[in-house]
Structure formats: structure tokens, C-alpha cells
Amino acid sequence: MTHNNPIIVHGLDELDAAAAAVADAIAATGHTVVTFDGEMGAGKTTLIRRIVERLGADGSDTANSPSFAIANDYGRDRSGRTVYHFDLYRLESAEEALDIGFEDYLDSGDVCLIEWPDRAEALLPLHRLNVAIALQPDHSRIINVEEL
Predict the structure, then answer these.
(1) CB-based burial, 58-94: b 16+ in 10 Å, e otherwise
(2) Rounded to 10 degrees, what is the CA torsion of 103, 57, 15, 25?
(3) d(CA 52, CA 61)
(4) Which partner for 2 in 90, 129, 130, 146 could form a disulfide, CB atoms 3.0-4.6 Å apart?
(5) What pLDDT sits at residue 23?
(6) From its phi and psi, is residue 20 left (phi > 0), alpha (psi between -120 and 50) or beta?
(7) 4-24, pLDDT tens digit by residue?
(8) Residue 144 to residue 97: CA distance in whole angstroms
(9) DSSP 111
(10) How far is residue 127 from each of residues 15, 28, 43, 146, 148, measured CA to CA in Å?
(11) What is the pLDDT of residues 96-112, one digit of tens each?
């Protein structure tokens, strides 16, 4: 499943449509592992914050980048699953992800929203959702949601 059309976001006021598309894709496909690709500053964390809100997770009001903790737990969503946000940017290797029990999170059936997935690519399930965010020269973003 690929979201039919790329989502073009010109500003924060248009971000909810992208968050809704990702939340809808999670519901429609049953995938709980969602990876986010995009350069530094593309808006991955901001989009994830809106997705956490859309899913109705208890901790959505405190959603921010877990860069220093690697993982944040935002509590349960409306479906009763825990929503985790991983920022793997600081990892040097997939082995470091193993040290925090990353595979257990991935296998839990809970929602795992993962920034910088290339840092632990070997550990990720082949079948997942991927959200690609491309920053444009005019500062808009083109967002594609696809099922891998």
C-alpha cells in the first residue's frame, strides 16, 4: 500500500493531513513499525509528535525527540498499544540498538516510530511502513507514505 499521492506540506497548519495519513496507514495495514526517512531538519520529530497526538497516546503532550534517551514511551494509544518513539541518530551500530532491547520493542506489537532507521536497518522487519520526508527549496515538504 502506498498513499496514493504525495502529501505536500507548506506549513505546520497542513501537517495534520500527513499525520492522519500515517495513522490511517497504521490502522489499515496493521503495521506497527513505522520508519521515517529525511534529512536533518526535515521535520521528522514534528510529524511524529502529530502522529502521537492523532493516535491518542497519553503522553502526546510531551512528545519530543528522544535524541538523548534514544527511546521515549508516550503511553497507550486508543487501541491500547504503547507508542514508542526512537531516534537512532546517535547509534554507532546496530549492536548498540540490541543493547537497549530494540528487537523486543519491534516484536511487541506496540507502535514503534523510528527516526534514522538506517542506523539499525539489519534489525528492522522487511514489512513495515516508511514515511519519506523531502525538504524542498521553498521549505515545503513532500511526504510519501508507503508499505515496504
Answers:
(1) eebeebebbeeebbbbbebbeeebbbbbbbbeebeeb
(2) 60
(3) 9
(4) 146
(5) 96
(6) alpha
(7) 689 999 999 999 999 999 999
(8) 26
(9) E
(10) 25, 14, 24, 10, 5
(11) 999 989 999 999 999 99
Q: With residue 16 as reference, give the H or E element that holds it.
A: helix 15-29
Looking up cell 528492522 gives: 124
Residue 92, helix vs strand vs coil:
coil
Secondary structure of 40-77 in HEC code, one letter for each residue: CCCCHHHHHHHHHHHHCCCCHHHCCCCCCCCEEEEEEC
The alpha carbon of residue 33 and the mean position of all alpha carbons in its chain are separated, in whole angstroms, by 8
Q: Residue 4: what pLDDT? A: 65
CATH architecture of 32-141: 3-Layer(aba) Sandwich (3.40)
Sites in the chain below the pLDDT cut of 70: 1-4, 60-69
φ and ψ of 146, to 5 deg: -140, 150
Percent of the chain whose predicted confidence (pLDDT) is above 70: 90
